[in-house]
Amino acid sequence: MSFKEVFDRYSWDEVKASIYNKTASDVIHALTKRERNLEDFKALISPAAMPFLEDMAKMSHALTLQRFGNTMQLYTPMYLSNECQNICTYCGFSLDNKIRRKTLSEAEIEKEVAAIKKLGFQHILLVTGEANQTVGVDYIERAIRQVRPHFANLSMEVQPLDQEDYERLIPQGLHSVLVYQETYHKEDYKKHHPKGKKSNFDYRLDTPDRLGRAGVHKMGLGALIGLEDWRVDSFFVALHLNYLEKQYWQTKYSISFPRLRPFSGGLEPKVEMVDRELVQLICAYRIFNQEIELSLSTREMERFRDHAIKLGITTMSAGSKTNPGGYAVEPQSLEQFEISDERSPAAIQEMLEKNGYEPVWKDWDIALENV
């Protein structure tokens, strides 16, 4: 059975009604259980849970310390290309956005690698737009081969690929793949992705299944917060996670919380999530699942990130550049989206240590891949 078969059993409107009909009793029941199911998760993300936010934060903090200790994994993205054949209403790289396109050459990748290494990172995330002709699997494979020897851990966020493509890239040193569904609202998904391969909702929905069958070490899930009702989208992320953990139990999972940020196209969020609601969502995921890694990017403001580290977050980006060549080759080129926390990696390290956390620059070694 694929996730699509599971997904097709659910109605967006019925899930939404179920979440909004949860009561304070449902929330208390969820908080007092030893293990929570998807109905408990609905209660924890419901409006009825807002008065219990402090209790949820304390529980989330304790569960995170118990599983992960006072540690915070650090990584940074490396954008290889802003070329893209998709039209997406919320993205600066969208095909209809008249910007100068750039794909890094091997020499330019070397410069970026050197600049990122000087910042201290051992974990990086390779990012491209979705342009199969210029940054297809051949380009990605060459980039992984070139970059992998310089870093302990390599993740990527690129166009969804076929299972055999992932099977080809994993032996080259690919450790993790991030693939966000953007929104699980099928009709609205079509509105936001009117052209390009990304407009195929079902192909994107099946991507984690292809990754699981390919045997990837870790995959990252999430929805783009702001396209639709965040509570309903977050339920479907949890449903997806629940299915994947049972189907591909040897793979590890992470969840991210990307809130829609300004970009050169200017889409306003349909639904705005305030900071208290993001805190609620982070805590709900931790209470629902104690094994999951929770990641927070530089999309968020400094003040929020400083407080979020004690709520359940285990991974943070730092010093991020969201444009190809942003670290050394072409720092002034157009960003995919604006970042909010512009502190240097050294400043993030200092902040973490001041709060009693140990920044982790490396927790994976190439030698372990052969164990």
Give a description of the structure:
With 371 residues, the protein is of the alpha/beta class. The protein has 16 helices and 9 strands. The protein has helices at residues 3-7, 12-20, 24-32, 38-45, 53-68, 106-118, 132-135, 137-147, 163-169, 186-192, 201-205, 207-214, 230-247, 275-288, 302-308, 345-354, and strands spanning 71-79, 123-127, 153-157, 176-178, 218-221, 252-256, 293-296, 315-317, 358-360. It has an 8-stranded parallel barrel with strand order 1-2-3-4-5-6-7-8, surrounded by 4 helices. The longest helix is centred in the middle third of the chain and has 18 residues, at 230-247. The chain is globular, with a radius of gyration of 20 Å. The two termini are 30 Å apart.
Concise account of the structure shown:
The chain is an alpha/beta fold. It is built from 16 helices and 9 strands.
The secondary structure category is alpha/beta
Described by its quaternary structure, the protein is: single chain
Largest sheet: 8 strands, parallel, barrel
User: H/E order of the elements?
Assistant: HHHHHEHEHHEHEHHHEHEHEHEHE
**Number of beta strands:** 9
Distance between the termini: 30 Å
Strand coverage percent: 5-15%
